[in-house]
């Protein structure tokens, strides 16, 4: 749970950051989607076919709300995340911190893999080169009165939901709820323990 005793820093499990990065695009032409987007109290990853959003009010997070530092949003590059995961495994680190260097006003956030007493790796997050998708427009909770249409999904797009829930210790018995849908070509919106997902259906099926 985020506390207000420590400013400009938030900490989470390396497993969670790794699980979120699975939702990021690997397309070299979509630089704005190649990473985990951090804004205010939200972590977001999207590859154009599915999206995950995690509020940093969950008990897995420790630190502060950055006091407005993340008002504009920053993208933690996928390459940096993958390097950090490797560094964490090398030193046995379990947590990752996203921190602002108080001596680097106006510069990117500092990004570090750390244990309680040892900092193993430092990278920088950067502002997205182009705008991130309109998350608020995608993440509606409206439900038409009619029953959801028959939808077909690529199972690989759903497989990465479980590691995110596992990293946040959300029990499978609590289930994943369908909270929004549209027509047969519209995304399906899911929610579990405060984590929101969007998955696009397959077309031409």
Please summarize what this structure is.
The protein is α+β, with helices and mostly antiparallel strands. The protein is built from 5 helices and 12 strands. It has helices spanning 14-21, 78-91, 135-138, 155-159, 161-167; strands spanning 9-13, 35-39, 42-46, 50-55, 62-63, 74-77, 95-99, 110-114, 119-124, 177-180, 188-192, 195-199.
Topology:
Blueprint: E1 9-13, H1 14-21, E2 35-39, E3 42-46, E4 50-55, E5 62-63, E6 74-77, H2 78-91, E7 95-99, E8 110-114, E9 119-124, H3 135-138, H4 155-159, H5 161-167, E10 177-180, E11 188-192, E12 195-199
Antiparallel strand pairs: 1-5, 1-7, 2-3, 2-6, 3-4, 4-12, 7-8, 8-9, 10-11, 11-12
Report the structural category: alpha+beta
Distance between the termini: 43 Å
- Tell me, what's the shape? globular
Using the CA coordinates, give the radius of gyration.
17 Å
The largest β sheet comes out as: 7 strands, antiparallel
The average pLDDT value, as a whole number, equals 77
Number of strands: 12
User: Which residues sit in consecutive blocks of at least 5 with pLDDT less than 50?
Assistant: 1-6
State which percent range the strand residues make up.
25-35%
Number of domains: 2
CATH top level assignment of the largest domain:
Alpha Beta
Examine the secondary-structure arrangement and name the CATH architecture of the largest domain: Roll
CATH topology of the largest domain: DNA Polymerase III, Chain A, domain 2
Order of strands across the main sheet: 6-2-3-4-12-11-10
- Count of individual helical segments: 5
Helix and strand element order: EHEEEEEHEEEHHHEEE
Share of helix among residues?
10-25%
């Amino acid at each position: 749970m985020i506390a207000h005793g420590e400013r400009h820093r938030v900490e989470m499990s390396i497993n969670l950051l790794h699980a979120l990065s699975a939702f990021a695009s690997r397309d070299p032409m979509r630089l704005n989607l190649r990473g985990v987007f951090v804004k205010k109290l939200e972590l977001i990853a999207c590859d154009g076919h599915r999206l995950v959003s995690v509020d940093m009010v969950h008990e897995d997070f420790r630190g502060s709300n950055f006091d407005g530092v993340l008002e504009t949003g920053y993208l933690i590059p996928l390459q940096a995340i993958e390097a950090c995961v490797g560094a964490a495994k090398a030193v046995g680190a379990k947590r990752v911190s996203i921190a602002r260097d108080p001596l680097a006003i106006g510069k990117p956030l500092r990004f570090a893999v750390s244990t309680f007493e040892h900092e193993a790796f430092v990278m920088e997050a950067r502002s997205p080169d182009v705008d991130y998708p309109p998350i608020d427009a995608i993440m509606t909770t409206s439900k038409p009165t009619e029953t959801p249409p028959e939808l077909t999904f690529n199972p690989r797009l759903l497989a990465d939901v479980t590691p995110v829930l596992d990293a946040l210790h959300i029990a499978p018995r609590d289930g994943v709820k369908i909270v929004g849908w549209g027509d047969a070509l519209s995304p399906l919106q899911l929610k579990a323990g405060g984590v929101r997902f969007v998955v696009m259906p397959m077309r031409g099926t």
